[in-house]
Amino acid sequence: MSPLCPTFVVIANSRGDFRSVVPLCYRIGVPQVTDGNVPWLPARMQRWIAPLLHLPPLSPWRIATTFAVAMGVDVAQLLLGPFGWSLADQGLDLVAMAATVWLLGFHPLLLPTFVVEILPVVDVLPTWTGCVGLVVARRRRRAGT
Known about the structure:
By secondary structure, the chain is mainly alpha-helical. The protein has two domains: 8-53, no CATH class; 60-143. It is 59% helix and 8% strand. It has seven helices and two strands. Strands 1-2 form a two-stranded antiparallel sheet. The two termini are 23 Å apart.
């Protein structure tokens, strides 16, 4: 089972007897959502989800730009930290999250990084740079390059 698929679906026959329990992603795959072939999900929601699931090709330009954004945000948070500018800190986190999703595509590792950045001491650590490194490594391993 993939870590991207934590939800399970119980498949029952017409009498209501349980036949099997399968992970949701095996029953409804990402290609089905991006093609709009999930009958129980409203079309409006499918149109909203599909761009988020699209993974752009991993190019050296995208990787370098994402690392530059992540390092820039981490350095800015390190410099702004002693001044107590928490609102600017959260704004930088939003910018980093949006830029990373736009450049590399959505990855579940971005969510804990975004949530952890709310904590006052942890935001000084280079969490965005580490997260981008992990996402790039996982995408490369998945692509086999």
